[in-house]
Amino acid sequence: MQIEIAAKRLAELGHATRLEIFRYLVKGGKTGVPVGEIQSALGVPGSTLSHHITRLVNVGLVVQRREGRTLYCVPQYTELDALVAFLQDECCINETTDST
To answer: What is the CATH classification number for the domain harbouring 13?
Structure first.
C-alpha cells in the first residue's frame, strides 16, 4: 500500500464520528448495514451521516449498495486488512538485540 493512501484512510478514520460509523459497519458484517439503521443506532443526523459515509467511500473503506429503496453500506475488509498490514509490515525490523 502506498503511504499516501494509508495516510488518507487513517485521516478519515481519525475523525470520531467516522470511526464510530466504520466500527458499527464492521460489526454488521459483509452484507452491509442499511443507512437508516446506522442513523438510528448512532444518532447522527441524516445529512451529517451522508457526509461522513461519503468520506469513507472516497478512500475505499466503504462501498454502498442499493436494494430497492434501501441503501446499504458495506465495509471493505480487504482494504481494512491492507491498512493494518501496512502498519505492521515492518514491525521491529530496526530492533537490535542485546547480546550481553
So the answer is: 1.10.10.10
